[in-house]
Structures are given as C-alpha cells and as structure tokens.
Structure to design on (411 residues):
C-alpha cells in the first residue's frame, strides 16, 4: 500500500521535525555550556556572544546587493558577519577587514544555523522568514529585509516579508503595498524605510566610469525569467528563431534558476540554436558588460528589465505581464501591479500576433522619444535617493542598533 502526503502536509511535518531536532540540539548545547561553566568555576565564556550585525545571503548572486552595504560598514569601522549558503560566494574573498564572511552550508543546514543565531540585527533579501524552514531565532533582536529588485514588493511568494521587523524600500508605492498587506492580515506595522537601491547606485557609478560601449552591431539581449509564465515556457525556441531573422546580433541569457529548474528545456534550446557569429549564450555571473553592450532587451517579468531601462537608459520589449499571481502576495491586493503600469512606458509589448513584426518593434523602441520620457518617470517612482542607497541603509542599521542596545552597558 502506497501512502501519499500532499506538499502542504509534508512541509508541515518537515517543519515539526526540524523543530524537534533543533530543540534537541539546543538543549544539548546548553547542557554542555552549563557543565563547562561549572567545571571552570564560572570563568569560561559560553562562546555564544551576541553578534552586532549579520547579513544572510541564500545565493552568491546577491553579493551585488550587499557589497555596497558591506563596504560602507567597513568604511565606518563596524564589524559585520556575512553568512552565505553558496560555497563559491565572492563574499568569501571580500577585501573588507571588518566583513567576516563564512559559508554556513546549503539549504536546511544553513537555515538550522540561522535558527539558533545570536545577533542584534540580521539583514537579508531572502523572503519566507518564519514561513518555511527559516525561523526567527529567539536570540535575534531584529530582522531587516532589503529588496533585490526595483519593482513590486508583493511579488514574493505569499507571506514572504510578513515576519520581518523592518523592510528597506525604494519607492512610495511599495510602502502602500506593504501597509495594505498588513491591514488585510492583521499584522503589526513594520518599520518601512525608503533608502533607495544600493546595487543600482553601484551599477550606475560603474557605468559612468566605464563610458559608452565600444562600437558594435545592433545587439538584442534576450533575458527571460523562469517558470511556466516565463518567455521560454510560452514561446519556446520560436522567439530565438524570430530574433535571428532580424539580422541583429542576439545574446541569450537565461535566468540562473532555469539551469537548475528547467535544465531539460534549456539544454534542448542550446542544442537547437547553438552559438554562432550571430548568436551567443551568456552565463556570466556579473551581467554588467552584457547589459552595457546590448541596445535593447527582450524579456518578460524579470527584474533585469528595470536594471536595463533605469540604469542603462535603454528600451525593452516585454511579454504579457498578466501572469498568474495566485501564489504571490500580489494576489491579496486589488490594485494592479506597479510593474504593469510601468512597462508600457518603457517599451513595446510582444504578443503572439505581432511576433512576425519583431524587427519593426525593435526599431520603433529604439527611435521613439516617448520611451525615454517613460523611463524618466518610472525611475522617479521606483528609485528614490539615487546614489545614496548604501549610506542610508547603514545609517538606519546603526541607528537601530543603538536603539536596541541602549542601556545594555549600564546593565
């Protein structure tokens, strides 16, 4: 007889199991500490001193989000521990004396470590705190979330940021989205601080230093997201074939998650459309150069749209943004996504019926001045305090730390 456990029940059972194991580990650790304390006459430290600041990154690609913050913390001489779930995270080789990076394991091993953390403030861009395996540690005073894209804060899986104490944002519309979710769910108000977008500040400064790209043929970057609503799942290889017919140089850059979750589809596309003089496949960890040397982007709902349009000031061709929001926080809200209102101002929409006119769409987006004005409007709405993101973030973290630790020295 085969037993079936639905995913929801399985997740609950797994959480219970992790909790039981975690409690046992914690109890054993406390027993060892007490024995050591008694054997040494009460003179031995427990080894569990509170860390002032911790950053947690679940993937190496978020180093671009955190590096400007780490650099600013280091400049001010403040120690920070950077915990990563990627063994090859570039943070592990960071050059900042006050930033101590450590690999804490992947998946559940990392979350188990975090669940027993002792820290004043934890900063992360990972959603799902207190929802999945990552639980609020009883010895962590304050959790801060920072977004990793300049778009709707409601595009996380349901309850993605509900149990953070504070959220760092970049636009007023995001404030409204968080407050609406809190009201619907009866949650206490979080601290919401508009700090800007540190990683976009960094990329903009880098672009100014690099200058314009070298002379090159007109280049189209195809960079979809992943999942059943993403561009490759909807159009398959037809989109690559149509782009090649334009005669323009084509760069295909799949989302990193596609190589993990959609391996078979990506391998099939790479076999059907191999690299050539006109077509290249790009998997660079750093997307700066590929964005710099592309003239126009073709994408769906990927966050790279806003990097490309707002930093590099270039147009985009996007697919239908009305994808299924049933699994996301956006489902709870009645108003349309900010992204839906922004995209028509940034470029043209690609539909099955105008796929054959893709070359004309590309030429129109590159020549029509209304898209340049649309980019200016969107930039003002979703990227407040340009150039100040890292400074404002660190200002807030240090201020909050002082609040949390006020009076501790007297005690």
């Amino acid at each position: 007889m085969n037993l079936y456990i639905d995913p929801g029940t399985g997740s609950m059972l797994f959480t219970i199991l992790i909790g039981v194991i975690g409690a046992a580990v914690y109890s054993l650790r406390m027993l060892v500490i007490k024995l050591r304390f008694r054997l040494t006459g009460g003179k031995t430290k427990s080894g569990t001193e509170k860390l002032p600041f911790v950053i947690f990154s679940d993937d190496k690609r978020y180093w671009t989000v955190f590096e400007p913050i780490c650099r600013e913390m280091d400049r001010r001489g403040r120690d920070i521990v950077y915990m990563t779930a990627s063994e090859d995270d570039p943070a592990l080789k960071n050059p900042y004396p006050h930033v101590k990076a450590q690999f804490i394991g992947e998946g559940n091993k990392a979350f188990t470590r975090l669940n027993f953390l002792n820290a004043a403030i934890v900063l992360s861009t990972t959603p799902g705190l207190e929802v999945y395996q990552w639980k609020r540690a009883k010895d962590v005073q304050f959790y801060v979330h920072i977004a990793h894209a300049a778009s709707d804060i409601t595009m996380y899986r349901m309850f993605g940021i509900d149990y953070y104490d504070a959220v760092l944002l970049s636009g007023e519309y995001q404030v409204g989205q968080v407050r609406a979710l809190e009201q619907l769910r009866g949650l206490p108000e979080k601290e919401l601080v508009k700090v800007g977008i540190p990683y976009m500040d960094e990329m903009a400064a880098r672009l100014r230093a690099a200058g314009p790209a070298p002379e090159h043929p007109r280049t189209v970057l195809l960079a979809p997201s992943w999942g059943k609503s993403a561009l490759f799942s909807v159009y398959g290889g037809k989109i690559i074939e149509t782009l090649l017919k334009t005669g323009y140089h084509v760069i295909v850059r799949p989302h990193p998650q596609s190589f993990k979750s959609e391996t078979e589809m990506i391998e099939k596309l790479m076999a059907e459309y191999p690299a050539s003089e006109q077509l290249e496949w790009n998997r660079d960890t750093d997307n700066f150069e590929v964005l710099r040397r592309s003239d126009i982007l073709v994408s769906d709902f990927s966050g790279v749209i806003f990097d490309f349009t707002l930093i590099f000031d270039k147009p985009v061709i996007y697919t239908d943004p009305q994808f299924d929001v049933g699994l996301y926080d956006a489902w709870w809200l009645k108003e349309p996504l900010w992204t839906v209102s922004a995209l028509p101002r940034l470029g043209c929409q690609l539909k099955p019926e105008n796929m054959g006119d893709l070359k004309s769409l590309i030429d129109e987006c590159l020549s029509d001045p209304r898209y340049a004005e649309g980019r200016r409007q969107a930039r003002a709405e979703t990227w407040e305090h340009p150039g100040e993101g890292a400074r404002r973030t660190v200002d807030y973290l240090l201020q909050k730390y002082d609040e949390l630790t006020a009076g501790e020295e007297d005690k």
